[in-house]
Design brief:
Largest sheet: 5 strands, parallel
Order of helices and strands: EHEHEHEHE
Oligomer: single chain
Helix content: 25-40%
Number of helices: 4
CATH superfamily: DsrEFH-like
Strand order of the largest sheet: 4-3-2-1-5
Radius of gyration: 13 Å
Distance between the termini: 23 Å
CATH architecture: 3-Layer(aba) Sandwich
Number of domains: 1
Length: 116
């Protein structure tokens, strides 16, 4: 099995880096023999906020993240969450508060690390 770690740094909307990172993570997670982990840092922790409402026809980062979470693992920097006032109860299903130590472990275990 090949393990890929995706690290997202940017806010869910305003740029398309989070969108493109999630598109690639989702496509890879759907392939046999692939383990996908996603770690959200800085403003990217907003990608995991539950209850996102976007205009009709616009992509929904929460739904995209949910697909990755169902097929892999999603961790959020707890310090980054605290700095932005995001609590555990506000997270979408499958997303979990995590730590830099967890990110270090996932990085050491990964065959590939992709940063957006």
């Amino acid at each position: 099995m090949t393990s890929t770690l995706f690290i997202l740094n940017d806010a869910p909307y305003g740029h398309e880096r989070a969108y493109n990172g999630l598109r690639l993570a989702s496509a890879l997670a759907g392939k046999e023999g692939q383990q996908v982990r996603l770690f959200l840092l800085a403003d990217a922790v907003g990608c995991a906020k539950a209850g996102q409402k976007v205009p009709p026809g616009y992509y929904n980062i929460q739904l995209m993240l949910g697909k990755v979470a169902r097929q892999g693992e999603v961790g959020l920097c707890g310090t980054c969450m605290d700095a932005r006032g995001l609590t555990d109860t506000e997270l979408t299903d499958g997303a979990k508060r995590s730590t830099l130590a967890q990110l270090a472990d996932w990085t050491a275990e990964a065959d590939k690390v992709i940063v957006f």
